Amino acid sequence: MSGVQSVDRAITVLELIAEHGEAGIGELATALGVHNSTALRLLGVLAEHGLVEQVGGRGVYRAGFALIPLAGRVAERLEVTTHAHPVCEELAARLGETVTIAIPDRGYAVNVDQARGPSMVTAHNWLGRLTPLHNTSTGKVLLASAVAADPDSLATALAPGTRLSRPALRTLAAELAHVQANGYAWALEEYEPGLHAVAVPIRDPDGVVIAALSVSGPSYRLPPQRIAEITSDVIAAAREISHRIDLHRP
Fold first, then answer.
1. pTM, 2 dp
2. In terms of pLDDT, which residue wins out, 61 or 151?
3. H helix or E strand, kind and range, residue 103
4. Residue 135 is part of a domain; what is its CATH number?
5. In this protein, which residues make up the domain named HTH iclR-type (predicted)?
6. Residue 6 and residue 42: Cα distance in Å, rounded?
C-alpha cells in the first residue's frame, strides 16, 4: 500500500466514523474495498495516535480524544463559533436541552459547536459529527438555503450516495419551501428514533445563511407542542448570534 493510498484510506475511515459515530471493522473494510486485516492494521495505526479508539473490545471503533485539540484549533478559526458559543450556553441552560451549531460541507451538516443543558439525559455528543442534510433539522435549514435559487439542484446538493425516490424528493422540496418561508425546520424522529429537533438559520451581515442553530432532545421532553413553544426562542438566539457577527464585521 503506497503512502498516499494509506493517507487516503485513513481519511476515509475518519470521515466514516465521524458520519456514523462508530463503525465496525467489517463495515470499514467494505467501504474501503480491502480485507478486514488491512482495515485492522490501519485502525491500529490510528489508535496508536489516539485518533480512534475501540469500543469495549467489540471490533467497533469511534473517534479518539486526540481529535479534540485538532478540532478545537479549527473551531477557533470559525467566526460563527466564537460569537455563538455564549448564546448557545445560555440557551442550553434555559431550555435544558442540547444546542448545536452546524455548517455545510460537501453535502453534510458538520456540527462545529455544542452546549448541553443540565439534564442527565441528553442528546448525543454531536461535536465534530457529519449528519445528513435531508433528515435533520440543521441539514434542512442549510439545504433550504443552498437550493433556494435553484430548486432543481436539490438532488445534487445532497451528499454522494444519498438515494431518495422522486416522491421523497418532492416531499423534501415542499418541506424546504416551508423552511424558506417560515425560517425554521423541525425533524421529528427522522434521523434517529426518539430524537426531536428544531433548527433556524444564522446569517452573516449580508443576509447569507452561514450556519444553523439547533435545539435537540428526547421526544418525550420535546414533543411537537414543546418544539412549537421553543421555536421562537431558537429564532431569537440565532438573531442574537447574527447580530454579534455583524457587530464584529471589519
1. 0.70
2. 61
3. strand 98-105
4. 3.30.450.40
5. 4-65
6. 8
